[in-house]
Amino acid sequence: MNNARDLPWARGVGGGLARCSFRRVAAPALLLAVVAAGSGSVNRAGAQWVEEPGNVWMALAMYHQDTRERFGAGGDVEALLAEGHAVATSSFLTTALGIADGVDMWSQLSFHRLRYDDAAADRSSAGLGNLKLWLRAAPLRWLGSSVPFAVRAGLKVPLGDFEDVAADEIPLGDGQRDWEVLAELGHSFWPRSVYVSGWVGYRWREENTESMRDFGNELFYYAQIGGQLGRVGYKLAVDGWNGAASGADGVSGPGFERDLVQVLPTLLYDVGVGQVEAGVRFALGGRNVTAGRSFVLKYFKKWERSR
């Protein structure tokens, strides 16, 4: 789905000024960027149009960001500390299944390959990130309304070991659970191929008691307009989130808030029975997250149950 935050750099390595900057600043910022990527990985599915029972779709999304910049606590673009260089390549496999009239369920599994180099050390990690699960329902449909409104509730479950990482490794997740709920709404301008859709939601983030890190809850949102011209589709999306102040080892307060706003223009092309999507994410603004653009490549495939 959207929002832009399942990133892996929640924890870093200690020792030295550059290493401290990695742990407190660079690692969380990079993780947040990756997570943000996963949030918008399933738009092609037509957010609010809940799947019919037995229908299945799959979306495989890949993201790549190579940056030496970040948004500081005041929102200004600045260089990563200690000559930092962050590279993140992530993939998200999202599937959905219609399980009842007006109800479908989603799952998303992520894989990350991360690198962060600075004056102190070169660090890298690769492996599974988090597992995310959602249940979505269209309550107005049960009342006989055709308005494409849906409510979705989800859970993020950490995978792997996020605490016992070596000094030259980057944790691939925050090592804690998230809970979220969001409302989705859309409209199709049929017979024109143009549509608009979006959602707004709230995420409750549990504290990681092992690392003594509190991530702060988040408000997130997403909006898109798109259409089709023959076999070529187009889409312009805006997504973002605002996070409360995070903290580590009891240190928190003003200046620790995190937020990000991105715009994503993409083109889509029908390939066989599926569709390929390619685009670029431009970070318009933020605080305490990596800056710069990222490249997106997705493949979407749907299977409909024969009636």
Record keyword descriptors for this entry:
single chain; 307 residues; mainly beta; Porin; 12-stranded antiparallel barrel; 3-stranded antiparallel sheet; 17 strands
Task: Indicate the percent of residues in helices.
Answer: under 10%
Number of domains: 1
Q: What is the count of DSSP helices, taking H or I runs of 4+ residues?
A: 2
Gyration radius from CA atoms, angstroms? 19 Å
Q: What percent of residues are in strands?
A: over 45%
Name the assembly state: single chain
Structural class: mainly beta
Mean pLDDT: 84
Give the CATH superfamily: monomeric porin ompg
Please tell me the CATH architecture by its name.
Answer: Beta Barrel
The dominant shape is globular
Quote the CATH topology: Porin
Tell me the distance between the termini. 28 Å
Task: Give a short summary of the structure.
With 307 residues, this protein is mainly beta.
Q: Please, could you describe this protein's structure?
A:
- The protein is mostly beta strands.
- The chain contains 2 helices and 17 strands.
- It has one domain (17-303): monomeric porin ompg (Porin).
- It has helices at 17-39, 139-142, and strands at residues 56-67, 69-71, 77-79, 85-100, 103-117, 122-137, 149-158, 178-188, 195-205, 213-214, 218-229, 232-243, 247-248, 258-271, 274-287, 289-290, 293-303.
- It has a 12-stranded antiparallel β-barrel with strand order 1-4-5-6-7-8-9-11-12-14-15-17. Strands 3-2-16 form a 3-stranded antiparallel sheet. A two-stranded antiparallel ribbon has the order 10-13.
- It starts with 16 loop residues before the first helix and ends with a strand.
